[in-house]
Design brief:
Layout lengths: L18 H14 L13 E5 L2 E4 L5 E3 L6
Antiparallel strand pairs: 1-2, 2-3
Length: 70
């Protein structure tokens, strides 16, 4: 898939939409695809399921949080 050093995963848009927008999208996607620390079991296994819903893959705890980061 298309990636660049400047904008990472937003490189799939090519030269469209402008570099500022693509950098913002890349930053948001980086946050939402990252793993976070579970408040219950304290392991770094929490991943995003959908908007505002996060799930720990170790203890199966579902957590409500922000849209893009826990």
């Amino acid at each position: 898939m298309g990636r660049t050093k400047k904008v990472g995963s937003a490189g799939r848009f090519g030269s469209r939409y402008g570099v500022t927008i693509r950098k913002k999208i890349a930053e948001i996607e980086k946050k939402q695809k990252a793993k976070y620390k579970c408040p219950k079991c304290h392991y770094k296994t929490v991943k995003r399921v959908s908007v505002g819903i996060w799930k720990c893959n170790k203890c199966n705890t579902k957590i409500g949080g922000k849209a893009y980061e826990l």
